[in-house]
User: What shape does this take?
Amino acid sequence: MTDHPLKAHIAEIPDFPAPGVLFRDISPLLRDRFPQTMDAMAGLFTDAEVGGIDAVAGMDARGFVFAGALAQRWGKGLVMIRKSGKLPPPVVGASYALEYAASHMEVQPGSGRVLLVDDLVATGGTLTAAADLLTEAGYAVAAIAALIDLTFLNDFAWRGMRARSVVQYDA
Assistant: This one.
């Protein structure tokens, strides 16, 4: 797979947020190439696939950027998956493991076919928890997408569904 031209606008910050970590900073990309980024993310899906979804679900907080822009572009609803305590009831919640800690996310119950979107697939744990949570809350996950996939950290698939991504890092 060849590198997407947008990859050149993602800054690499060594030793952030901890020594030994190479952080991929999307701030310059979003600042300088946001319309092109959203074109690329929208291009991951056919018109027929878009026609088959009711809403775009985004993860708190960077996932909101992509989910909101795609929902607006396609005339779809927006489902917000928030950190614990940020949504009024009723909510469905789930705890999940992060690399060095645990976290909790919530979503309001609903129905319909959703596209789950986030900024990054690292190990896939957060996306797995979000897809499971959406299902428990009454939604059907039709597809999963992220701007970046750190393929060297994962072989992510949820119920056989692979995440689509614009930019991949093999190392």
Notes: The two ends are 14 Å apart (CA to CA).
